[in-house]
Amino acid sequence: MEEEPCHKKPKFDDSLGDYKVIENYIEYIHTATNNVKAVVSDDLRDHVETITMYGGNIKQRKDISKTIKLLNEKLPLTSFQHLKRVRNETVLVCPTDSVKEKSIQEYVCKFVPELTDLFENFIEVAVPKHPVKLKKQHAVFNKIWSCNFHPDVYLEKLTSNNFFSEKELQTHKFYMTLNLEIALWYFKTSNLDVVTEDVFACLNVAIVVDPSIDSIVAVGIDNSSSHPIQHATMVSIDNVAKTQKGGAWIDRAKETDGSYIHNGVDKKLLNYLLKKFPVIKIGAKKYLSKTDLIDDEKTTSDGPYLCTNYYVYVLREPCIMCAMALVHSRAKRVFFCFERPETGALKSKLKLHTVSSLNHHYEVFTGFV
Asked: What is the DSSP-derived secondary structure letter of residue 168?
């Protein structure tokens, strides 16, 4: 059997220069066989976080049903519905930190006097603190304590190593390498030659794609050296707004005729991309305002709010500001290539997209290099 070629991540070399390093990254992403992976919340990790509870060993099995019924009425485990109350002859009574009396026996006598003589003894038992969400978690958790579990097919696939099909993966790789192509174009047209091991320390690029038509809606290139909040992601969102008769930072280009408009992409960059990649589509669906929707008797889904249902490909992991902007703009999925240990808000420093209190959540994927 012929061995697969060994793919190594590109490294900076003074003799190569920035341009060659970028070209090497493009080749690496295209040829690497690894699938990108979802960045998921911590409650989907393999590690079992436990909490200590008091368990009472029942003297006679015939009293288990009565015991569980009384405990559910008088000492309900409201925050632990994922746990089964009994395992063999041991019944969960309460978390150890909720007992303020001298002993668990005194606590039971005080709150459930009917059970005073039914327990043979009490023990402390470590049980899973959070609900089980994955099969692999259930296999581990269930060894500790019996848990209620309802498999989620989509979640199982999302956390696997092969969430995307080969065709989908190639599409995502293409758009990420297109970010690198745009970075390369920007370096060359701006006559920049930054000699640093972190080639992209002074540059970030973001591409917004409408997957329903496989078209680039907008591109954003970092301009934070001139404006403190014009990060690549922020610029790309503002450029999306331009395709929807909005935008704040640069005068909007006039809309072109037809079903596609190109004012989400700089004209010079647009010409470069169409010349080098003639098969790609660039432009958004024709925007329909609320008035247009009413007149045409269409639904609100026909007129997107900013990045609704769009995919955003970012070269470098977004910061907190940009990550929140993606929440507010209703992005569907976000892909990034390089982690930012000091400021990254989607994996490195925190996983903002997993905060349950947010009113919108998008999926995040990385692992291109």
From this structure: H
